[in-house]
Amino acid sequence: MSNRLFQSVVHQMRDTIDCVIGVIDENATIIACSELSQVGTTNEFVSLDLGDSHDIFVRDGYTYKPFGAHMKPDYAVFVEGTDEVAAKYASILAITLSSIKQYYDEKYDRNNFIKNVVLDNVLPGDVHVKARELHFSADISRVVLLIRMLSTNDVSAYDVIQNLFPDKSKDFVFNITESDIVLVKEVANGVESKDLEKLARSISDTLSSEFYTRVTVGIGTVVEGVKDLARSFKEAQIALEVGKVFDTDKNIVSYDNLGIARLIYHLPTTLCETFLKEVFKKGSIESLDHETLFTIQKFFENNLNVSETSRKLFVHRNTLVYRLEKIKKLTGLDLREFDHAIIFKIALMVKKYLSANPVKF
């Protein structure tokens, strides 16, 4: 990347500086030059003069000015000529190229660093040190959104999302798989879950309405600084997995709003299986037909109210009572009793969860 960057600057300056100019690396290989034929050639005598000094030196009719971010120079500018003008040109070029490289390196490093933190590829002890080097503020609030494409076309969703969040110093966008895109978004302190869901909705609507790309978005919790971004990312992953099981009609799922489903997800599978065997003895849940399970669902939706549920189901009250008695006989649970209803509701969710076999993060 540095070679292309240096060549671009040298090319733009060659008409202003009416002489041969270029850049050599620490091995004295020319990596950029106004005379393209010289790129790739090496002057072994110059490498001896680079040493540990950043001072200007003259060799074979050229003036050299070493530069770089370390004690030992990484590069040196060279300008044809040995007079004071050549020395000034060399100094100006060195300052310019050094500043531009630092800007581009920092920009690249910041994005790469955030990606590695999110994917938990950085040791905890190194996160704070590197964040300070790259000037990340410790008290800035950020959140991770995981955008998963369900259907797509020739349009790059990655490019669309990058254009939606153009401030590369605050917001970071990167791919982790062909279908998954991560957005690390800087947010105001005290931002609410509904605001984050509104943000996710705007991303989804833009991709859907303008580019015919369907997505689902998982939202992690807001974290301060950088070190907890990996946790926010895992929460966004969990939100998508749990949403896939329990909220199949939603395409925006927030970790903060998963409720009991989040608790079930974090339980060991063996514990869930034991709980089901305890609640539904001898396959009692399998003996419930589709009509009965639909009745149970409506009974829960209407807050265990027999009269309201029978009205919604267009059945006589006694018919509903008969069905509830049948459930009680099969499972030992009377859904008209609050405690029994809670156990039954959770057991149904656990069974659905085990059947879906979601990915664990």
Structure description:
The protein has 361 residues and is of the alpha+beta class. The strands form two sheets. Strands 6, 7, 8, 9, 10 and 11 form a six-stranded mixed beta sheet that branches. The protein starts with a helix and ends in a 5-residue tail after the last helix. It has 13 helices and eleven strands. The mean pLDDT is 89. Helix 9 packs across helix 13 and helix 11 packs across helix 12 (317-331).
The portion of residues forming beta strands comes to: 15-25%
Average pLDDT metric: 89
What is the alpha-carbon Rg in Å?
A: 32 Å
What class do helices, strands and sheet pairing give?
Answer: alpha+beta
N-to-C SSE series?
Answer: HEEHEEEHHEHEEHEEHEHHHHHH
Total strand segments: 11
**Apparent shape:** elongated
A few lines on this structure:
With 361 residues, the protein is of the alpha+beta class. 50% of the residues lie in helices and 16% in strands.
SSE order and pairing:
Layout: H1 2-13, E1 21-25, E2 30-33, H2 44-50, E3 57-59, E4 62-67, E5 75-80, H3 84-118, H4 124-133, E6 141-151, H5 157-164, E7 172-175, E8 180-187, H6 193-211, E9 214-219, E10 223-224, H7 229-246, E11 252-254, H8 260-265, H9 269-279, H10 290-301, H11 306-313, H12 317-331, H13 338-356
Parallel strand pairs: 9-11
Antiparallel strand pairs: 1-2, 1-5, 3-4, 4-5, 6-8, 6-9, 6-10, 7-8
